[in-house]
Amino acid sequence: MSYDIVIVGAGGGGMYAALEAVRRNPALKIAVITKVYPTRSHTSAAQGGVNAALANTDKSDTVDLHIFDTVKGSDYLADQDSAAYLCEQAPILIRELENLGAPFSRLADGSIAQRPFGGASKYRCCYCADKTGLTILQTLYEQCLRYGIQFFNEYFLLSLEQEDGVAKGVIALDIRTSKIRKFEGKTVILATGGYGKMYWHRSSNAAGLTGDGGAACLRAGMALKDMEFVQFHPTGLRKSGLLVTEGARGEGGYLINNKGERFMSRYAPEKMELGPRDLVSRSVETEIREGRGFDSTAGQYIHLDLRHLGADLIKSRLPQIRELCIQFEGVDPINEPIPIRPTAHYSMGGIDCNTACETSVKGVYAVGEGACVSVHGANRLGGNSLLEILVFGKRAGMEAADLASKLPAAKISDQRLKDQEEHIAGFYGKNQAERYDVIRTELGTSLADNAGIYRSKELGEKGLSEILALRERFKKVKVADHSKTFNTNLMQVLELGNMLDLAVCVAKGAAAREESRGSHSRIDFPVRDDQNWHKHSIFHMNAEGEVSLSFKPVTMGKFELQERKY
Amino acid sequence: MEDKREITFNVLCFNPEVDEKAYFKSYDVVLEKGITVLRALNYIKDHVDPSLTLRFFCQAGICGSCAIRINGVSKLACTTQVWEELEVSKSKDTITVEPLRNFEVMRDLVVNIDPMVEKLKKYKSWVIPATKDADLGKKECTVMPEEFEPINPATDCILCAACYSECTINEGSNQQFISPLVMLRAYRMNKDTRDTVGEERLKVLVEDHGIWDCTHCYRCVQSCVKNIPIMDAIQGLREETFARGMTNSEGARHALAFKDDTMKLGRLNEFTLPLRTLGMFGAVGQIPFAIKMGLKGRVPPLLPHKISTRKQVQTMLEEVERDSKKSH
Amino acid sequence: MKYAYYISCINESMTKELDQSLFLWNSQLGIELVRLDEGTCCGGSNTDFVHPNVNLVNNARNIALAEKLGLDLVTSCNTCLLGILHVKHEIDSDPKKKELVNHYLKKQGLEYKGTSAVKHLLWVLNEDYGLDKLKAKVKKPLTGIKFASFYGCHILRPSHLMKGGDNPNAPRSLDMLVEALGGETVEYASNNKCCGFHTLLVAPEESFNVAGKALVEAVEKDADYIVTPCPLCHMSLDAYQGDSMAAMGKDASIPVLHLSQVVGMALGLSEKELGLGKHVVTTRSA
Fold first, then answer.
1. Which has fewest Cβ within 10 Å: A117, A123, A446, A490?
2. Domain of life here (chain B) (predicted)?
3. Is the Cβ–Cβ distance between C143 and C182 less than 8 Å?
4. What ipTM is given for this predicted complex?
């Protein structure tokens, strides 16, 4: 089938793009292909809210303040033209979404309520209780159904097709039947999500956040950007990685090591558990590394102890945290300490693109956590990730719709299908013996140890060589399930392949960047170095799978570089 | 050291490529306390049987992918603790896992939820806003907190389909029934002050297999993983049919009869209930049943029971009705 | 032990045998039941959406009648139980609603205070009376008779309103009662399913399909009787059994007993006294 626009991914970004495109030009043929049903997408997991300088709650808020907070939050690695576009569009996008039925929480006068959020100088974050992402995702899905958007649910992206720098579409696997098919498209929008799951058991992400779009771009010769920037949260649950929010420490929870010590006294004697997030993360990690953690099947961890707060306070002030611990960890914080450790939860890097979501290939656009515009730079501001998918989802839909009407139909050769079929058949070969789950776990451990909260030249290089070795072993990985019907074993192997390619970039970037900026924290280079490192990292992969690193300047604007202090 | 136990998972498996019908496979695994059913199944997939097929995604109870039946009850695998499940089930060391009901099984625990999506489309499960396309994004609509409140619980729905799987009439109608989650969403749309097609939506909702076919069994409410009072939404839609004067349906007439009898007699007149529900023509179908019952001496009294204080009751309830109308 | 006994409309007409047997044994156990003759129809799970306030005031009045006697209210119909419990819950958790209902009730010389509990007969026997005590009263143990318990929806769900202590997914209270009377119980998956009563007139095929499935399962598990604590379930399972079996393509049959009849059996009442002949289905066949 041949389309005007092929959208890969049906989270907030992909669906907003589809909606914008169909509303701009109802005659366009649009296909949305997604490996999970649209409402399963990870957009649903964003709880907190979405920033927009509506100035409903605080009349003194302005778009400029929002831009400044974003640029400062990014540790000055965000491109200021993109950040400005993001923040200028924010109020329009929120109102548009609201007009379409999104259920935002309200102020007494009936306008959209806003609350304070980390890194924001004003009450700017619009929300719907603790289900903001879920309700936005549902609203977009409802509107897509209304407009009759054609979804191809449970199709897995195998390759991005381009010829001489022009988009041709994608090849995807129908998970239900294992059939491989072409989606020829004049334009392609990649809205495939982040890559934080490569940290596997050390990640709060959904199972599918495996960077499929980024990996497809990398293999198509396109560039990824700023891959070393991955955000960590200090208190993820031991088994699931799910976040125990700051609230638990805010109410007076203690962090305790296996000696029974409140170890934060060594790192932040005054603020103790309420020190800045990155410091708490590093402190917990240090305790574990120096052998003061607890042992378990699921790895080493530290205790977040709430017991001294008493049952009444826990029940009345922290009911959601308590439910989270009971459901996912089998631990009731009233009776037991919560097992926690730092966890990866957001990837700032991604497919290199500009404010118009354009990549180096004409007709290929990228949007959302899988893209790097870049508006988050070295560190994402809370409430800006949902905003990003809305603003740039719309922009990508707009750009693709306009371009598609000017281009001739795209064609993908049958040979390309055969290549993909052969690639997949390879996993079933007789000599395939490596276990996917073993490689996956080792990948997670290596990344967390060498390209996680703690980084250094030595660790980075160690990580890189370990990951390259895993990638070698992956060539012998085995798909044990030979069924053609809903073969999730095959899918997990394909996802692992994607994660490994991207992990090479992450480790390479972590080893190379000799400074500390935002989420990237080097023990051997503890301060930001604007002289040498105020630049984006750019990653390419050649046909042999070798990843090369180059750099690109940051687009500046009205805000000069200054030290980031809160 | 951690508490561990040997646990048997009986999983209903089916691969249409090779199996004629579904069968149970048993997996014995040693698991530690604190593990969820989803993690246990994934442990089995990684270490014992890579062919075991299930859906999962967020692993945080918010995406709805991993809804299956655990010991017969539809719920999310990712929020169900293995040890807690053992505590409530009769067996000490066995957990039974099956796919959701009321869907075609594609493989093992994976079901085809497309029919559910088709129902969302049929009943227009979206807001058609008053704001014109050209004006989108220009101005916020005012939604007062008290207008937001009725739609708030419904927006917790994650489309996990647990209620769809548990629904009595969905099963009884071979899945022709609208199903609970679609009614929940219809209610949410119709209560939304920004929506413009409430009446149009309601007209489809009262058709055959629509809101009047719900049998009030509360299985949807009981199984909802987000504790949404789904029955309130179903009753809310029915209430709306009366508010809009759409009373020309068997379900509406049936319900009205209860209110009328309570108000006028104090008790229900079961003798005329079929006639009032089904109309003269429809009630003819009930005659053989009436004869069968009559032979057993089981007939509702021709003259219904009336309580002696019925006049006072009538006066009181009519006053309630009048006052409610005034405050509307 | 003394209770205000709420009269269910159906027990006055289609299932008279339920109350008939109950009133033959309640005094044997020393359970005094004061009939609420002035009680009104609970609304049958219908009035609440036709007119929520009428439903609220109407059932508040039913409870207030029991409160006036200083007694807890007992019913032997699941739907009446839920209808009245629901209103009680609404009023008890919202002072404004309490004020509203009392505004009307005062004119009738009544007041809703919230002092009377609302219970099902099954709960009274299991908890207030106690199964050990009941066991001691058994004259004709139901030895060798196999019962399939059919609980019905409105005594189990929504579980936050129900005080019977049953797990709605695996109820035991009725089975425990039957076992105390010396009977055997069979395990079958349909015991907590719906009988389809409330859609018998508007969606009969659907109702027959769900009731049929439960009936067939009880037959296959070799039960001699189905026992139910709800007269509406009884109607569906007994009076419409032929239709439901036909929907399943079966011509088996299984008699369905009221809870009150099963207790009566064990307390030595005759088939005639229990009104077993009034049932549409009187014989068991496979």
1. A123
2. Bacteria
3. yes
4. 0.96
